[in-house]
Amino acid sequence: MKLLREYESSFDAEETVKILERRGILAFLSSKDSHKFSRHATGATKVGLWVALDHQYDDALSVMRNSAHKAKTALS
């Protein structure tokens, strides 16, 4: 699993995950639930977007730059 990007907004992170998944790229958000609560209580200041499969990392970056990119390592 590799970190793609960190977001201040969990909404923006979730929208990016939807785009990646439509292109066949398995993604995961870290600190999504913790981010909803007080930062002082949880320590979570950002939501992390991760690609779950290392071999999809380059495709994920390409899709994030250009949502029309067709992933070479897409899952069905």
**Which whole number gives the mean pLDDT?**
88
Largest sheet: 3 strands, antiparallel
Number of helices: 4
Taking all Cα atoms into account, the compactness measure Rg is: 13 Å
Distance between the termini: 19 Å
Offer a concise description of the structure:
With 76 residues, the protein is of the alpha+beta class.
Describe what this molecule looks like in 3D.
It is a single chain. With 76 residues, the chain is of the alpha+beta class. It contains 4 helices and 3 strands; from the N terminus they run E-H-E-H-H-E-H. It has helices spanning 10-22, 32-35, 39-42, 57-65, and strands at residues 2-7, 27-30, 47-51. The protein is globular, with a radius of gyration of 13 Å. The two termini are 19 Å apart. The mean pLDDT is 88.
Question: What is the fold's blueprint, element by element?
Answer:
Layout: E1 2-7, H1 10-22, E2 27-30, H2 32-35, H3 39-42, E3 47-51, H4 57-65
Antiparallel strand pairs: 1-3, 2-3
